[in-house]
Amino acid sequence: METNNEKISVSKNIHENINNLRQILGIGKSFDVIQLDLLYAERDMAVFFIDGFIKDDVFVQIMKLLSGLKAEEISDHPLEKLLRSYIPYVEIETTDDLQKVADMVLAGPTALIVDGIDKAILIDARTYPARSPEEPDIERVVRGSRDGYVETLVFNTALTRRRIRDRTLRMEYMQVGRRSKTDVVVCYLEDIADEELVIDIKKSLEKIDTDGIPMAEKTVEEFISGNHWNPYPTVRYTERPDTAAAHLYEGHVCIIVDGSPSVIIAPTTFWHHLQHAEEYRNKPVVGAYLRLVRFLAVWASIFLLPLWYLLAVQPELLPERLSFIGPNEDGQIPLYLQFLLIEVGIDMLRMAAIHTPSSLATALGLVAALMIGQVAVEVGLFSNEVILYLSIAAIGMFATPSYEMGLANRIFRLILLTLTAIFHQIGFVIGTFLWVLLLVTMKSYNVPYLWPFIPFDFKGMMDIIIRAPIPLKRTRPKFLDPKDPDR
Question: What is the pTM of this model?
Answer without folding.
Answer: 0.88
